[in-house]
Amino acid sequence: MTLWAIVPVKPLRRGKSRLSGVLSESQRAALNKKLLVHTLDTITQLSELEQVLVVSRDPEALAIARLHGARTVLEDGTPHLNVALTRATVVATMYSATGVLVLPADLPQMTAEDVCVMVEAASGPSCMVIAPDHRQQGTNALLIKPPGSLVYNFGENSFYRHVNQAQSKGISTKIIELPSLARDVDLPEDLSFLNGQLEDWTDVDDDELNKSGHKGYYTELISNGSMGGEN
Fold first, then answer.
1. What is the pLDDT of residues 68-109, one digit of tens each?
2. Which of left, alpha, beta for 156 (phi over 0: left; psi -120 to 50: alpha)?
């Protein structure tokens, strides 16, 4: 199986708006950035994944993705997660992907082993492997083989919609329940999933960014217009 991971990313300064009552805009942006880096660090080195594809309308998010060796798709038009994922899936299939794994960039406890469990569960020519969130309502990881065999239906109660759709089409369905995959950060109470390291996840250390050269690298990519289209 030639498997591509697709990671959708909202604009870093706008994502996690439901945390606005407890975190400032700068803190939320820092959290979103560090969650994205954690996701990329976890999956870009996995031999089980042929490629990682990040789809976003945020030039900085795309720059971070490319710095980590991921391909990128610039989202345009009216923001809509399912439309963005569909476009990214088309790109993956153009490069002969035989399966896609959709992973959100807000799973602070996700490990490489979790991803391998999802991949190992994908048996047969046609299947869906799905991991629900801790509320058993949303979809926190979704592997589809072959790509395009299911219509993306992310949103409220997406876990049930994805499962019902797969079953109605006779597609083999496997549900993976792992605490580390289930614990996404969306609401204030979910900040407990950061294991007491809230300050580390939400602190922006400009000196460290400048020392590493990353900040300048992001700025250069954005100013040069290197983030447009598909790469």
1. 999 999 998 778 999 999 999 999 999 999 999 999 999 999
2. beta
Q: Which residues of 158-187 are buried (b: 16+ CB within 10 A; e: fewer)?
A: bbebbbebbeeeebbbbebebebbbbbbbe
Where are the chain's structural domains? 3-223
Long-range (24+ apart) CB contacts under 8 A made by 117-124 are: 117/176, 117/178, 118/143, 118/176, 118/181, 119/1, 119/3, 119/48, 119/49, 119/143, 121/174, 121/176, 122/1, 122/3, 122/174, 123/172, 124/172
Burial class (CB in 10 A: 0-12, 13-18, 19+), 53: buried
| Token pair for 157 | 């109660």
Instruction: State the pLDDT at residue 83.
Output: 95
The CATH code of the domain at 3-223 is 3.90.550.10
Q: For 38-47, how does the pLDDT look when each residue is reduced to its tens digit (9 = 90+)?
A: 999 999 999 9
Residue 65 exposed, middle or buried by CB count within 10 Å (0-12, 13-18, 19+): buried
Farthest CA pair distance, the chain = 54
Query: How much is the pTM?
Result: 0.88
Per-residue model confidence (pLDDT) at position 205: 63
